[in-house]
């Protein structure tokens, strides 16, 4: 008897996390929203060369998974801001660990060049 991978969502912590962060830009979006609220265009500039469609898709996915908040202001022109949710804030130690590991990995790349 085999287990379908769709049956692993919400059961296996590794599969669940991988599924939530599956988008190419998800971790970078969470990084940029860490400790600040940003508008769509601000995120788009920081994540260049991301396309509007891709950013929209990633933001929707992160919002659906309760990692970010989307606040819409009733004004003209429309104003929408994004920030980390409480659950997204709890991801901060993971982001910090990714940064530390990434820096160590980059150091190994530098030593291979020499």
Automatic annotation (TrEMBL):
UniProt entry keywords in alphabetical sequence: DNA-binding, Transcription, Transcription regulation
Start and end residues of each HTH hxlR-type domain: 12-110
Superkingdom of origin organism: Bacteria
GO function term, MF aspect, one: DNA binding
Keyword Coiled coil set for record: no
PROSITE patterns registered for this protein in UniProt: HTH_HXLR
A Pfam family hit: HxlR
The name this protein goes by in its record: Transcriptional regulator
Organism: Vagococcus carniphilus
